[in-house]
């Protein structure tokens, strides 16, 4: 692009003031990278900017541009100093503040600075400080192209990796579904500020699908395990009765099994896990209870899993709890269900248990 075109390209945009500033900054940042330093100064001076102001705008473009792309309709302050203060926040803090609705056109520079985490080395808010891993707003909601597939939010995978994975681990999700584990690992710069921390992520599933399909091995866990050694395994099994036919019509699909078959299949899976793990190997199983509110029949899956894993030479190491957010969508159907659950004295299930075991 000639310097004449750059001058036009770098002139301020009209429209939403904050987005216009961000786009302007993005273009200046692009110019910084694409033209020689001398030419850059010439162009910047030519459009009436000092190098310092151009640098400020470029930082705003680089930091806030991806945020504006990720959250369409985001509302941001329009004062450059306030946008600069926001640009200086760590990316996870910024994203959290945006999702929590703390970024407003009326905010001041001081408001923006007050969002700075207290510690100089803050841990991102997606990492939960307690064993309550419930999220009001998700950083990583479903990546399923068909929304009726069961999934767990990436936020939950992040906490599993944070609390239970160790540097250098081979981490396996052998019921990977759409590959959310890989998504959060690819976006680790949002939650992990340690470039030296490395994991070898291995994904497999009976029916690989979704955007990471080509990274997911096809593997029936009842016949084999995708890797010879796994330091840490995370698994989110389908619960029989709840999601029959959701993934496939196959008899080896745990979703299609009767409770007694499901229990047997989980025994096979626990044996396979143990065979792939040395002493000290860790595995996390994510399971909720299931209660049939009309009959009162209960399948207390976390308890069943505990028994099976104890039988297979594992000790329970930790438990965290995550809401499945059944009450998030309120409406007539939910009101009927809630009322029926109360009247029948059969509470609906809200919580998934995140059970982490260690191989003895
Ligand atoms: C609840 S989903 C996991 C979803 C995943 N956590 C995600 O976020 O996308 C359960 C997965 O178990 C898989 N599955 C069922 N039976 C299996 C088997 N015998 N071997 C391997 N995977 C199986 C299903 O294909 C399904 O993708």
Structure, explained:
By secondary structure, the chain is α/β, with parallel strands linked by helices. The chain folds into 2 domains: 3-114, no CATH class; 154-359, Rossmann fold (3-Layer(aba) Sandwich). It has helices spanning 3-9, 17-34, 37-46, 51-70, 80-87, 91-99, 109-114, 154-164, 180-186, 259-276, 301-311, 332-343, and strands at residues 170-173, 200-205, 216-218, 232-235, 282-288, 290-291, 298-299, 314-323, 351-359. It has a 7-stranded mixed beta sheet with strand order 3-2-1-4-5-9-8, sandwiched between helices. Strands 6-7 form a two-stranded antiparallel ribbon. A hairpin with a 6-residue loop joins β6 and β7 (298-299). α8 crosses α9 (180-186) and α10 (259-276) crosses α11. It is elongated, with a radius of gyration of 25 Å. The termini are far apart. The model has no long low-confidence stretch (mean pLDDT 89). The structure holds S-adenosylmethionine.
Structural class computed from helices and strand pairing? alpha/beta
Radius of gyration: 25 Å
Average predicted local confidence, pLDDT? 89
Number of helices: 12
> Could you tell me the strand content as a percent range?
5-15%
Order of helices and strands: HHHHHHHHEHEEEHEEEHEHE
Write the CATH architecture name of the largest domain.
Answer: 3-Layer(aba) Sandwich
Largest sheet: 7 strands, mixed
- CATH domain fold name of the largest domain: Rossmann fold
Task: Please give the share of residues in helix.
Answer: 25-40%
| Topology, number of strands | 9
The outline comes out as: elongated
In which order are the strands of the major sheet placed?
Answer: 3-2-1-4-5-9-8
Distance from N terminus to C terminus (CA atoms, Å) equals 64 Å
Low-pLDDT parts are none
What is the CATH top level name of the largest domain?
A: Alpha Beta
């Amino acid at each position: 692009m000639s310097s004449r075109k750059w001058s036009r390209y770098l002139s301020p945009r009209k429209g939403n003031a904050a987005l216009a500033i961000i786009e302007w900054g993005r273009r200046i940042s692009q110019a910084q990278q694409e033209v020689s330093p001398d030419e850059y100064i010439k162009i910047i001076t030519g459009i009436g900017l000092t190098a310092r102001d151009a640098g400020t705008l470029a930082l705003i473009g680089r930091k806030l541009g991806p945020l504006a792309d990720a959250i369409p309709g985001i509302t941001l302050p329009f004062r450059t100093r306030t946008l600069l203060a926001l640009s200086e926040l760590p990316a996870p803090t910024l994203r959290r503040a945006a999702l929590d609705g703390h970024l407003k056109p009326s905010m001041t520079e001081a408001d923006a600075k007050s969002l700075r985490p207290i510690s100089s080395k803050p841990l991102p808010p997606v990492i939960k400080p307690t064993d309550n891993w419930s999220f009001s707003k998700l950083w990583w909601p479903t990546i399923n192209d068909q929304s009726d597939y069961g999934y767990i939010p990436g936020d939950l995978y992040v906490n599993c990796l944070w609390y239970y994975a160790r540097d250098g681990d081979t981490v396996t999700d052998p019921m990977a579904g759409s590959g959310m584990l890989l998504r959060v690992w690819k976006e680790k710069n949002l939650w992990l500020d340690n470039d030296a921390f490395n994991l070898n992520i291995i994904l497999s599933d009976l029916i690989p699908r979704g955007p990471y399909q080509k990274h997911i091995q096809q593997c029936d866990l009842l016949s084999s395990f995708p890797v010879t050694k796994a330091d840490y395994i995370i698994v989110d099994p389908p619960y029989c009765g709840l999601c029959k036919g959701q993934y496939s019509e196959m008899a080896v699909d745990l979703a299609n099994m009767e409770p007694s078959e499901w229990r047997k299949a989980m025994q096979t899976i626990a044996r396979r896990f143990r065979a792939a793990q040395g002493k000290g190997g860790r595995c996390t199983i994510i399971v909720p209870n299931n209660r049939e509110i009309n009959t009162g029949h209960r399948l207390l899956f976390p308890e069943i899993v505990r028994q099976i894993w104890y039988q297979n030479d594992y000790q329970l190491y930790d438990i965290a709890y995550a809401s499945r957010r059944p009450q998030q969508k309120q409406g007539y159907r939910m009101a009927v269900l809630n009322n029926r659950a109360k009247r029948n004295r059969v509470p609906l299930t809200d919580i998934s248990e995140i059970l982490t075991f260690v191989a003895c």
